[in-house]
Amino acid sequence: MEALDYARSHRDAFREELKAFLRIPSVSTQEKHVPDIERAAAWLRDKLSEAGFSEAEVMPTSGHPVVYGAWTEAGSEAPTVLVYGHYDVQPPDPVDLWETPPFEPTIRGNDIFARGASDDKGQLYTHVKAVEAVLQSRGELPVNVKCIFEGEEECGSPSLETFIREHQGLLDADVAVISDTGFLGREKPSIVYGLRGLAYLEVEVTGPDHDLHSGLYGGAVLNPINALCTIIGQLQDENGRITVPGFYDNVRELSDEERDQLAGVPFDREEWLQEAGVVRDWGEPDYTIMERTMIRPTLDVNGIWGGYIEPGAKTVLPSKAFAKISMRLVPDQNPDRIAALVGDQIKALAPQAVAVEVSALHGAEPVVVDRESPMMEAASKAYEEAFGKEPLFVRRGGSIPVVADFRSILGIQTILMGFGLPDDRLHSPNEKFHLPNFYRGIETSILFMSFLSELSR
Amino acid sequence: MEALDYARSHRDAFREELKAFLRIPSVSTQEKHVPDIERAAAWLRDKLSEAGFSEAEVMPTSGHPVVYGAWTEAGSEAPTVLVYGHYDVQPPDPVDLWETPPFEPTIRGNDIFARGASDDKGQLYTHVKAVEAVLQSRGELPVNVKCIFEGEEECGSPSLETFIREHQGLLDADVAVISDTGFLGREKPSIVYGLRGLAYLEVEVTGPDHDLHSGLYGGAVLNPINALCTIIGQLQDENGRITVPGFYDNVRELSDEERDQLAGVPFDREEWLQEAGVVRDWGEPDYTIMERTMIRPTLDVNGIWGGYIEPGAKTVLPSKAFAKISMRLVPDQNPDRIAALVGDQIKALAPQAVAVEVSALHGAEPVVVDRESPMMEAASKAYEEAFGKEPLFVRRGGSIPVVADFRSILGIQTILMGFGLPDDRLHSPNEKFHLPNFYRGIETSILFMSFLSELSR
Q1: CATH code of residue A9
Q2: Is the CB of A200 less than 8 angstroms away from the CB of B315?
Q3: Looking at the predicted structure, is the pLDDT value of residue A365 above 70?
Q4: For A279, which residue in chain B has the nearest alpha carbon?
Q5: A12–chain B nearest CA distance, Å
Q6: In terms of residue numbers, what domain contains A350?
Q7: Does the pLDDT value for residue B165 go beyond 80?
């Protein structure tokens, strides 16, 4: 197949382009990186043009721009694929734990290390290069392809839903494809058919209206850090079961069949412990490790701060304490309802001697997609041919809110065609992408377009 | 009295000197300020010389230097007073909450605002200027005076005990005087006869060995922040009573007489709430606000941090969480024993899925001094004459570890002759010193020397 030959002979060039993409520190949650976000969007648009997309533009939103591309000359009988990805990245901190700088992509062995390597620049770029390979070698694609690459995924996609609503015609498609998930293991290509949702809160506890000397006031003024810890300590039991009233009301229990099928997915506990960097697992005893991370809701403090946090001792009774707390959700929990329930419980647990404010930062609906569609079959065959192995069907613990938006607004299913590996260290120092998966991901995308056009005939 | 006249006519000059002292950012807990510490020590030594002390030198310790001064020509029958103070200051952060920069002393109304204004540069300087006033106006002091000004008080005086042990002859005296405490209120001059002690711990909780994506691992890996909060939440009950086994074993209950006497000290609850900046007080219901802050032990989290603490949302399950926790102690609690008890309990409360390390930063013995000595009488009379009011005898919640060292090593009592006010915002942004108390503090020191020499005859 000429397109596969093209992709194989251009691996070095594709990798160098990816490096250039990764050098742009497009951190979406930090104001100072706005110029980098804009630079990354313009860079990506140029690459879409060069690949052969007939349309390629940077489109404004109320936040960071969307990069849109389209090649729709396959005709109206051919299926249309909508590829979603995000060109923004997580903040790189703690920066001092990176072996090489987060925005100086470095190859060690078969991996490329940089913030965004796997999440999601490296993965989205597989589809750009697949389209290039087919167009440059054959002059046309077997299907219509549209791309929507956003710049706000890591801050909760605040503008995306509106953008999709306002551009339904432009985005009209038969199926969506997202490469922002991963394999179960190096030799375990996987298609994700379920995702957890998210509710994210920020909590601010105020005690005295200014910092006090803990010697002079300690014992008669409630310390907001002590109060915050006491509140957080009461949100869960020792096994992680969340004690907020009503929290589990809408959790759909899995069928025995689906639990059996998940239990049949190969899982190496020792390997998992090593990847997680822990000595022992933890959590609800009635569920397996895989179930706890895929089909059960959670509550994690993502950040906490207050008082004196420099070296040495300062005997301060601080005015304020803060925490960022997020809940991972499963069908059919609703992010807004859970944010309200947990927020109310935090306030209910707060002693009268402090003031507590809770704000919801963003949410995402949990989703489960159909495993039996022809599109899923095309994806499965593409993986099998590119990686030499049938893919596993799994659920995943993270959230990709756009999947719910595509379903509700555009009426289409999403294939989660991920190429990451479990040790990619997403959101952590030393994030990397496995280069063989980058190259074979491009091939998978080429093959998917081909199988999809056949199956749809 | 010539010395009082001298002090009154030199008020402007003294205030300008204090400003120069306050401009030196002698923060002892931060490595970057070591040159400022040295500059402050040299400046103070020069001022001792200029005041007329016959000895004045900067003496090395294993940490920051001690400034020593002496005038001992009053003869061996005259009593010898050892004045202690500290020229180091707390870190100024959070710097953005200061109305004027912390190291640019600014006068607003009758107050001088700067880090260290009250704690302790302004207060220790009263004695330097008192000695100058007497020596420059009469040519001699009625008593022998020695000064020891340290540069490590705000980091727990790690070198001071050794310094005192190694220089017992040099420091030999009949009574110590420390001005590092305050009045109960603007018109309520007070002599402190009891101080709380301190035990200060730093806690490090480790979950996974690197930061994880909370979506991929949440639910099966224990989050170290959640664990830390749960531990801290269990160290106290809702009224602040500490639940660590054995914590109260050595707490000496006050006699009814002493409680009655404390209850007789004027206390304005509304004024206290306003100074503390709180809407309501908090703490053990069987004790008054004053008792909770003076005669009861406490546990305060002075700082906490972990995970993502920048603006926006990051869905991280962090590797580590930290807290600084200190306990204020009362007679006869021992700092080392309490540090061990609380540290052990923190470890006992820690779930197996995290690793916890506890280190003790420093401690201070609680002390109570004799209220009936001739020295105390001299001090009381000096206050009465300088401020026009008999001083109140109170206990205080803060810690001054050197008081216990003077008692155990030099065998002398300490008079806590403080001139601060409750709204001085020690350790907080906008620290200030009330200038009338600076001027009258100098007069009190002049009068104390005079009364002490009379009473000792």
Answers
A1: 3.40.630.10
A2: yes
A3: yes
A4: B353
A5: 30
A6: 197-251+289-364
A7: yes
Same domain, yes or no: A298 and A415: no
* Chain A residue closest in CA terms to B32: A311
Pairwise CA distance, residues B447 & B452, whole Å: 8
Q: For testing the chain A interface, which of B204, B301, B361 should be mutated: the one with the most A CBs within 10 Å?
A: B301
**Edge to edge, what strands does the sheet with A197-206 contain?**
A355-364, A197-206, A320-329, A298-307, B298-307, B320-329, B197-206, B355-364
Inter-chain touch A425–B210, beta carbons under 8 Å = yes
Kindly report, residue by residue over B196-220, the tens digit of the pLDDT: 999 999 999 999 999 999 998 999 9
Please indicate, yes or no, whether residues B60 and B96 belong to a single structural domain of this protein.
yes
Binary contact (A213, B427; C-beta < 8 A): yes
**B315 domain residue, yes or no:** yes
Evaluate whether residue B6 is within a structural domain.
Answer: yes
Minimal C-alpha gap between B70 and chain A (Å):
32
Please indicate, yes or no, if residue A279 is contained in any of the structural domains: no
Give pLDDT, residue B457.
64
* pLDDT number for residue B338: 98
pLDDT digits (tens, 9 = 90+) for A311-330: 888 889 999 999 999 999 99
User: Do residue A315 and residue B198 have CB atoms under 8 angstroms apart?
Assistant: yes
CATH number for the domain that contains residue A339: 3.30.70.360
pLDDT band at B253, cuts 50/70/90?
confident
Measured between beta carbons, the chain A residues lying within 8 angstroms of B196 are 215
Q: For B7-66, write each residue's pLDDT tens digit.
A: 999 999 999 999 999 999 999 999 999 999 999 999 999 999 999 999 999 999 999 999
Residues in chain B closer than 8 A to A300 (CB atoms):
214, 218, 223, 225-226, 315, 317
pLDDT the model gives residue A457 = 64
B206 and B153 share one domain: no
